Fold:
Amino acid sequence: MRLNGVPVEASPAPGQCLRTWIRAQGDTSVKKGCDAGDCGACTVLLDGAPVHSCITPALRATGAEVTTAAGLGTPEELSPVQRRFVEAAGFQCGFCTPGWVVTASALAGPDGTVEVDDPERTFKGNLCRCTGYRSIRDALTGTCNTAPGAVGAEVFGTSLPAPAGPRVVCGAEPFTLDLADTDVLHMRLVRSPYAHARITAIDTTAAEAVEGVVLVLTPDDDPGVLFSTARHQSREDDPDDTLILDRVVRHIGQRVAAVVAESAAAADRAAALVAVTYEVLPSVLHPYAARLPGAPLLHGEKHDSRIADPGRNVVAQSHGEVGDVALGLRTAAHRVTGTWQTARVSHVALETHGGRAWIAEDGTLVVRTSTQVPFLVRDELAHILKRDPDTVRVLAARVGGGFGGKQEMLVEDVLALAAVRLEAHGIRRPVQLELSREEVLATTPMRHPMRVGVELGADADGVLTALKVDVLSDTGAYGNHGPGVMFHGCHESIAIYRCANKRLDAEAVYTNNVPSGAFRGYGLGQVIFAIESAMDELARKVGISPYEIRRRNVVVPGDDFVVNGPAGGDLVFGSYGLDQCLDLAEQALTSDPSPDPAVPEGWRTGEGMAVAMIATIPPRGHYSTARVTMHPDGTASVSVGTAEFGNGTATVHVQIVAEELGISPAEVRLVASDTATSAYDSGAFGSTGSVVAGMAVAQAARSLAAALEGLDGPPAEDVWAEAEHTGSPRSVAFNVHAVRVAVDPGTGEVRLLRSVQAVDAGRVINPEQLRGQVEGGVAQAIGTALQEELVLADGEVVTRVLRHYRVPQIGDVPVTEVLFADTVDTLGPRGAKSMSEAPYNPVAPAIANAIRDALGVRPHELPMSRDRIWRLTAALFPTTSEETR
Amino acid sequence: MDLTTVTGHRRATGRADLALTPGETYLAGGTWLFSEPQPGLTGLVDLGSLGWAPLEELSSGGVRIGATCTIAQLHAWPWPSAVADLVGQCADSLLMSFKVQHAATVGGNVCLALPAGAMIALLTALDAEAVIWTPDGGERREPVATLVRDPGLTSLTRGEVLRALEVAPAALAASYAFARIALTPYGRTSAMVIARRDARGATLTIAGSTPRPLVLEVASEAEVGAAIDTIHEWYADPHGAPDWRAAMTRRLAVETVCRVLS
Structure:
């Protein structure tokens, strides 16, 4: 066949799909998002017709002309469609982009414009998890959203396009595993079929006999150091309850053994032959049951692992009260009580978890991986393998989406162990593990499902007299992020309200379900869903608008941030834009002159809103050291440890340096996310890429500018400056989401007629990029609110492929109007605040409140899917269901 | 995805090539086969090389759809307008995008026997008959409506090959009304109803919400409720709760019968 016009002799193997055949020829522009035909990231043209190469038998392409994104244009000479994706900023992480470009190219006119009647239907086979699709629609229609060309002091505040853009749209920007396959060994994992069991024997004889098998790792190979897959600045934030290969399995899908072979196929075949004998143990799947006396204990023996109460399966707890809640409730004129339940949802970063590890010539253990936190992974690998951190190097290329899921060490540990064991056998070859989409959906951490009880009391004017919250979080089989998500989820959600009497009882419990973990918003989305729903109900009882009840109760500068104990810490009002956000959202929804889309007869409409606050930086320190260097040729480079995973920091850091040094962004080169090339960075989580790493970059660039002052032209040799930021003190950012919905009582269908989010992000660094972050967060939240759900049966994930797990398609996401408050933060870089997790948080309750407004009955459970909403209405409007009888 | 246990790929050129050895299975479009791990599968017998005509007119005035006809080819056929609309609606009901429809086959959709299989619903509504090659070199025929037995299960035994699907002239002349619902606008079908106008009233094809396609006959809209009441098994999977699917089926049935009889 011919690949991008070049004849290729290599003949495909039986059973090989076209995607892996193309990649084996060295064209890595073809990505694997699902490997099952659902996401479109691997789209290629087969004799001009777009197909998903992952479900195309490679032998079927024999004799055909295959065209990939790499064949449509080059970074130097983009095709019209590729140029439009760059100009529109029609990507964030960029992993899905080559597939979009190829699909669009099959439909585009000569100028790159795609004119189709129904883009929602046409592009339902292309999933994007980052953008929320608006910017992709712009790329298809040819709208330019970016402004290249600004220089120096004009750069900050402009919509500079992502420097990697031209490479991303050609598939030329390398992601984690976009490397040559020469000499690489492949790993496959053996996983537990039981929710709780003890491994009594493992026989690897048959597996080792498979041709090409090089190594089989079992619990016998485990180094015996307990750790947590969750990574934080302090490793003590999470309980040490995990081993690389444990003799006890605590959830279905837990690793049992790892097979390393010459090919993925051989490793696959061998993995199926590892014979494991289990002693099945009693399991507990329901978080309510986990704390009851007699419940099976998951980590009962781990008394030194920082588990709050191993004897009750409680990994973390917070119980406390300020003021007198009982009194506050007793004296209240209005009270609201309710219990809300959130679902398990998966990040679905389009690039699955994967990495490659090897021992370098100097003996350094090198791990290239899809991570948000290279330095934290390095330090923990050194801890587990008892190595000096200087002998471990962890690096990330561009990361294909993260959303918190890659603040977790899910492949690096077993890869590193394999590399070390291989070396012990005299084998210094790279070993690679790439999780399948099924493995990601069925075995990797998901958002913590929470049951949240809320009780509110208010006086006759709607001023809160009591705020009582009860949280039960299911952390699953391991405590990774269990404490952090619980504490954070209950912090800004409660602290946003000023109330003398508050009580919080929160516990995160172990169950034999798949572990939960870090996910955009870090617990806030779940707790805010409950509290903001309750506040909406309270406004109804008081008889004031939902905006007004917030105005009467939210914190303002001068207030303390209080949850259930004394205020304290380093969280301050570096700026305050919540008042503006409330006004902006309310005005946009109520005074909007444009008519709503037509609503069919019999549907009901309603409006709803919710607010959210978030700290701009995680607590207890977040460190970054950046170095900015001016070279004799007049270009600059910036070296910083944080990772780019679609959050846009690669653009922001270049903008900051260009502004400080007064040069063009094209003259700034970024070197990032490699423990060997930059100083320490806590990593890209907690929305810190701009406000911590960005501050370090800004300070380093400013110092460099000072050092260069007086020079006429570039220096004769490299001149550099370094700066550190420690992540303290921290500011707060705000988001207000408002929607108008239409609900069909007959079917439960919810349509978003209008969607508005007002954000307080301080001074805006890059308006298009910020808008994209907000839209992407809103889209992910719409998925959580209305359609996404990991369904478990007896502890096993049933929704194991993307056609069963409903990531929003282009047709599921309406346009969200994004409004910016006008504030300048005293703490962030040039007045900016973080805004990447936050937009997610207020969306689900805003939609729930609008559904309540439309129907007169309140949803209490996510997702608010059609079947669930129909059940609400079926009880409410018996005549409606009668009509159909 | 790579089917890592597969070591053989035979291109069938005649019936003699269709005898399966242990571990082999038939490859049509491959869009499902390559979308999931296939443990134990060692060989593929490619039907694509048999050169079956995608669609042919029959001397009776009917249409014969080759089992390897792609969804896109089916869509492009010059059907009478009422049938063309129905074919388009059913093709659109598939979760797969137009890209997959270039490769996915009508026969493959039937043989998968998924409740949401829109080609099954279409062919059931068209009263289509499946032509099946039996391993002894013979042929048998069975309505699509009974060929599909349960989710993932057909009446085909190992070595039997779905050769074609035949639509009679009467079905091509009929008028149809179609309605479906999913949990999201373009999502996998939760319930689908096709009503065909007949001399005695309307014939309903129910799919998506039941484990297998069901055919119900009603004289008028008034009989729909009682007809739906005869259904006692509603399908449960992550694409909708059974009670909701039952209610939606009832609703869609009323809607389609009203439309087709109006």
Remarks:
- Chain A has five domains: 2-169, 185-281+347-443, 312-344+444-568, 574-607+734-885, 624-725.
- Residues 185-281+347-443 of chain A form a domain with the Aldehyde Oxidoreductase; domain 3 fold (CATH 3.90.1170.50).
- The longest strand of chain A covers residues 464-476.
- Chain A touches chain B through 65 residues (CB under 8 Å).
